[in-house]
Amino acid sequence: MKDQLINKGKALLDEQLSAYGLGGLFGGGEGNSGGAGSSAGSATPASDGMNRYQLGIDGVGARLSILRIEGHEQLSEPWRFVVQFTAPHGLSMSQVLSKNVAIALAPGGVSDLMGAASGLSSELMSAFNAFGGMFGDKIGQAFNAPIGGFSIKRITQMASQGASIAGRVSSVAGKMGGMASGLGSAAGAVGGIAGKASGLLGSVGGALGKAGSGLSSLTSAVSGAAGALGMNGGGAFGETRALYGIVTSFSQLSTSGDEARYEVTVSPRLQLLDNTRGNAIYQNQTVPQVVEEVLRKHELTGVDFRFELAETYPVKEYLTQWEESDLTFIRRLLADSGIWFRFESHAEHGCDVVVFGDSVQQYQDGPQASYRQPTGNNDGGLEAVWDMSVARKTVPQNVITQDYNYRAAQSGMKSDVNEQKKDATTRGQYYLYAEHYRDRGEVVQSGNEQDDLLGQFGNLLDGLGDIPGISQLSGVANSVSGAIGNVKGAIDGAAGSVTSAVGSTIGGITGGASGVGSSPVDFAGGGGSGASIGDMAGSVANSVGSAVSSTASSIGSAVSGAASSIGGAVSGAAQGIAGQAQDLMGQGTDLLNKFGFGDGEGGENGEGGEESQEPEGVGQGAWYGKLRHQRLMTEQITISGKTTLAHLAPGQILTVNGSPIAEAGGGILIVSVESIGDRSQAYQLTFTGIPYDALRPYRPALLAWPSIGGTLPARVTSPDNDQYGYMDSHGRYRVKMDFDLNDSWRKGEESLWMRRASVYAGETYGLHFPLIDGTEVAIAFTGGNPDRPYISHAMHDSRHPELVTAANHKRNVIRTPANNKLRMDDERGKEHIKVATEYGKTQLNMGHLVDAERKQRGEGFELRTDEWGAIRAGKGIFISADGQEKASGLSLEMSAALNQLTQAKMDMLSLTDAANKAKALVADIESQQSLLEQRLNDLSAKVILASAPQGIGLTSGEHTQIASAQNMTLTAGNQVDIGAIKNVTISAGGGVGLYALDAGMKLYASNSDIDIQAHQGQVSSWSTKDTFIGSGKRMVLSAQDELILVCGGGYIKIAGGKVEIGAPGELLIKTAGVTKQGPSSQEAAMKSFEPNTFKERFVITNQSTGETLPNQKYRVTTSSGNVIEGVTGEDGLTELMEFSSIERIKIELL
């Protein structure tokens, strides 16, 4: 009956307050019930009349009576409530499991009218807080715009963190004009608030009077109390905490004759993400973007989650979900970036909401309670905190992070961070390797350094007192605080009166009920009892009405006075601020720069010329070091306690008045809550938290990072099924991971660019066979981190069969897609190597040569091509057929060749001596010796030496030319044969000498003439023995001037048409007769020869382009020392040059 009376009183008061737009302060009866069901369908908690804990399941209309409830809540984890309840038989799994649920946790032991008074006090406080917030916002806009969340209450938080500062002080001047009018409007609004408050308080009296009438009517309506108060008021929560979730487990514990006992586990919808396990890849997204994508994949929409982040997070090139649930995946990513999350209940939509935060600005203002150890079994209806304890431990002094970025291999990546340099209790060093960041970053200011800046900021604010109006604002703030205190005091006094009156009334009602009987019929039937209830209810209403009405007038006066003072002060302050804000702009700008919010240069460019998109500092090594140290500092101090604050939840700041723990003085950030309640004991919570400190933000515990110990299969991809390797400027590839089920990637963009491991690598050297589209590769991971993949090696598969199998297991093969190959066969006794390319079928075959069917086709080596071939060696070439067993000896072992050349030189020297004695033209032995000793020996010069012990053959199908710029020596130990089917010519610019030592010399012409000529000299023929000149027909001896035959002193001389015969002895003529006739003569044909001169012109061209060079000066130097200079014509030709003999010339361009 006590709870029913409270609910009825709340409903009546709420009805009156609704007329002033303040309805719903106390639950709103049916209206609140309807709000709870908007998300969960019909999952509205159904009251069982006396139970503080209410449960509603979507689609279940039966009354559910909670026996026991146990809750587990923690920051960055989905909460879990285990509820045991009774219900009629027949609840099936399909009715309950995975259904939407609403749970109501109502406070106990508080009278309805005291709650009404407290609610009114809270509403007035909210109004003044709203003004205070507006007032604070204006100051914030004036000096630090746009600094979100700047209020008088938390100026120190704003100054220290600075994370919510979105702009710069330089915008102050532009906003000063609007500030005066804005503050003027604020003053007017305060006046309106005061007026409305006065009217509201007046109406409260009427409402309480109406409540008294309603209570009086209980006498006649007691028989219907169960229906009118209990059942119909089930949705009125008052300070009730509403939780919306989904059933994740359902058990039937027992069954009796008329009902069954069940147990359900209720969690937020986020918990369902734990049922989805998978592997996925995310590219070029921030952590919040990845989290949002996962949430939307599970059909959570914008109303179901909210990001309230102070940081702007960097784009992650590659993130992998590996063998983990979706819930674990997003929790891991969030914790890694220092982002935590908490839950709210959305009354309008009736759903749970997950809120993500990363700084103190996202903490919730939590409840306040006094520290009081409960006595006995009654807490008097007052919520309290007790059994508080604190645990303190030493944490590392600093965090060192180190990583390696191959894209900036020479860059230092180490950072050293100490967030609390003034903390003398920290000890040790916490070293973290491979946190996975691209740049070292700069170490940001620690909390202690921010303390120093905070002092400077405070000094700046203190300096504002010199501005006209600022001191007035300070006084106004004090006036407002005093006025609010007076209002609250008056209301508390009224509430005390109301509490006393209601307490006595409830006591009387309880006593009356006990005296009449326990059943509603007995209670209603006793007329005396009914009259007593009415009298007491009327007394309550009168007492409350008097207390509140007497206070309303003083409250209104106090508020109106405060509003008037504020209006005048604010107006003056605005004018003063506008006049002097410009002078403070420079100071504010400097402080903002020290806080790290000045205009800075962007991040460094990434490797490969791609500009980094990461915000400065965030995502870098120092940033990770800061997060990790903040996490360690989170664990330094842990506060625990117990409370009856039913609506206490993780993420709230709990204020405990009179706490015995010093660290709790500034508030406690609630990290976890364990709660339990049943019908035999009050709802009790055990909480853990950390001291609230604006400079020591909470960071969630890191989750274990998945590790991949081996390799995973993937295939190389390219945008257009490239025939050749598709890679970037650093030789990296993109692959499609086999585990990735996402088919929406654009081809060739399924992964980040991956490095390929190599057996050999270095600066400008290495080993790289390009991987073609579709090639299977094995992906390994640096340190096992799924976010750091690289190509370990390539694999053969059914689409790309192995080159070496059982069929050719003796071979070692390297073959490219274009059939360039290196084949090495290790079959003993048949070893061979083949280096080949398809172009021109160019091959080098060595060893046991085989054909395509592996039939032997030769031994040794074969160098062949269908195209052109060239053998080039800049220092010399030695070609030898001389044996060198088992590849022993030096590569230039040429003693056999040199011996042969030396023997040839000796032979030539002997012949030269004989020729010299015969006065014949001799060979140039010195040149041969120089060639042999100074050039050919050990290839001391750029020469070619070919040697074969048994012969060298040179043949050509058409032409063969052997040329030498200096000397050419042809020596044979036996015989030299020169033959030609047609002509043999021997020409020399100097002389030609033929000398035969022993076998003589023969000159034959079988079918034509022999013609011997000396164009400018003599022809001499000599023999120490007989000389025979004969002719088968005629012989003609002719001379142009004179013909002489001489022998033994006698002669015949023919000259000038005369014949002279002379002899020292007799002239014997043997003849049959002598005939003398008249004179006669006969002419012989004489030959004449042109002088040996040569005339030439040369074309001067550019060797690179082949173009002629007109008007080019030149100089020609002949081997005889003559110099000719000139200029080429328009056609690039030199002047005509004449030479008397064959000479070598050198042409120089001037």
TrEMBL record:
InterPro entries, alphabetized: Gp5/Vgr_OB, T6SS_Rhs_Vgr_dom, T6SS_Vgr_RhsGE, Vgr_OB-fold_dom_sf, VgrG2_DUF2345
Domain Gp5/Type VI secretion system Vgr protein OB-fold: 728-795
Residue stretches of biased makeup (Acidic residues): 601-614
Domain of life: Bacteria
All residue ranges annotated as the Putative type VI secretion system Rhs element associated Vgr domain in the record: 815-915
UniProt domain DUF2345: residue ranges: 934-1080
Region (Disordered): 595-619
Name assigned to this protein: Uncharacterized protein conserved in bacteria
Naturally occurring in which organism (per UniProt): Leminorella richardii
